[in-house]
Write a structure and sequence with these properties.
The chain is α/β, with parallel strands linked by helices. The protein folds into two domains: 145 residues, 3-Layer(aba) Sandwich (Rossmann fold), CATH 3.40.50; 57 residues, Ybab, Chain: A (2-Layer Sandwich). Helix content is 37%, strand content 21%. It contains seven helices and eight strands, in the order αβαββββααβαβαβα. α2 packs parallel to α7. The radius of gyration is 17 Å and the shape is globular.
């Protein structure tokens, strides 16, 4: 065990991000749901605004745990071509699943923000946070989608990651910060004392609490 829970992990990660503290050009975006408690602690420590960046897996019909791709905020779709070609999944099936997940993505964004608009990231430094990286597939989709919104800089920050996955992101983003890269790495959850599922209500509460804090002064 490296971390008691996601809040503990967020506090450890925030220490690695102190160079970004008290900067008016910095935004923290967390991947829900598990990344939000981590991102909350990071945002509080850095005195930065917090928002969510929603990613949804595209499961193969009948085998939903097998991902044939993913979508993210902003209408970005990334396909796992190996799965699609091996199983011969037709375009109309992909489109149908993507449309269903897009509706769920939009519902979650509305629900999580309680009517607050998404934070504008154009020209800003974005710290993209999750509770850990195993294969990194969800984070890759988020990075691709985020780059479409034209931030000045994309920083991926996680409490822990598989060593190879952390290394792979070095060429994909402006900066990657993995607080720990333990080996052997089997799963994210094994390194947490409490890895219970974060609820939608918790996500809403943490975003509401973060939104109530004063904005940082210009730096």
């Amino acid at each position: 065990m490296l971390f008691q829970d996601r809040f503990d992990a967020g506090r450890v990660l925030a220490f690695k991000l102190c160079a970004f503290a008290n900067r008016s050009d910095t935004v923290v975006l967390a991947l829900p749901r598990g990344g939000v408690p981590v991102g909350f602690e990071v945002a509080i420590a850095l005195n930065a605004p917090l928002d969510v960046f929603v990613v949804r897996k595209l499961g193969v019909p009948g085998y939903e745990e097998l991902a044939m791709g993913a979508i993210a905020s902003g209408g970005i779709r990334v396909l796992n071509e190996d799965v699609v070609q091996t199983l011969g999944i037709p375009d109309d099936v992909i489109d149908r699943v993507a449309a269903e997940e897009e509706r769920e993505l939009e519902r979650r964004e509305r629900d999580y923000r309680d009517g607050r608009p998404p934070i504008d990231v154009r020209g800003r430094t974005v710290i993209l946070v999750d509770d850990g990286l195993a294969t990194g597939s969800s984070m890759r989709v988020a990075v691709l989608a985020l780059k479409r919104k034209r931030p000045a800089k994309v920083v991926v920050a996680v409490p822990l990651a598989a060593p190879a996955t952390c290394a792979e992101f070095e060429s994909e983003v402006d900066q990657i910060i993995c607080a720990a890269t333990p080996e052997p790495f089997r799963s994210v959850g094994q390194w947490y004392g409490d890895f219970s599922q974060t609820s939608d209500a918790e996500v809403r509460d943490l975003l509401r609490r973060a939104a109530s804090l004063p904005a940082p002064s210009a730096v």
